[in-house]
Design brief:
By secondary structure, this protein is an alpha+beta fold. 31% of the residues lie in helices and 29% in strands. A hairpin with a 5-residue loop joins strand 2 and strand 3. Helix 1 packs across helix 3.
């Protein structure tokens, strides 16, 4: 059975972008150069942090559960009461499913998981934080059936 691995990634969580099919049939990352660079920075940050875990724990095989809290900077426009609480749900872009795609891909690239298809269960949330670090808290753990059957 795989161990439970917990780690933090610092940076700005960035979703996986769409692909654009070129006239010659090649698939390339869509969006502007700035967007592509931001996606690359996030995937690199996740892969670096996950790679350190892979060095210690090896490559995890599944079934696996992925638990992630994506942390974004809270806009200054939030009401004082919300800022004082320190956090708020992030109900605006980026989409949670696209954040999970980019993060799962980076976990595979890092060698922490054999394949992101091994994630059979996911718990994810995105929040805004005031005056605190941004990035993600990631937990990869073995998954068992909830009903106790094997």
């Amino acid at each position: 059975m795989s161990p439970t691995v917990k780690f933090i990634v610092y940076g700005t969580p960035t979703p996986q972008g769409s692909k654009t099919k070129m006239p010659n049939g090649a698939m390339v990352e869509g969006g502007s150069k700035v967007q592509r660079d931001m996606r690359a920075d996030w995937r690199t940050a996740v892969a670096t942090a996950a790679g350190q875990q892979a060095d210690h724990f090896g490559c995890l095989t599944g079934p696996l559960r992925l638990t992630v809290t994506f942390r974004f900077a809270m806009p200054k426009s939030r009401k004082a009461a919300i800022r004082e609480s320190g956090w708020n749900w992030k109900t605006s872009a980026p989409d949670l499913d696209k954040l999970l795609r980019s993060t799962g891909d980076a976990l595979k690239i890092a060698g922490l998981v054999h394949d992101d298809a091994l994630f059979v269960a996911t718990v994810a949330e995105k929040i805004e934080v005031w005056a605190d670090w941004t990035g993600a808290e990631i937990v990869v753990s073995p998954e068992t059936r909830l009903d106790g059957l094997s």
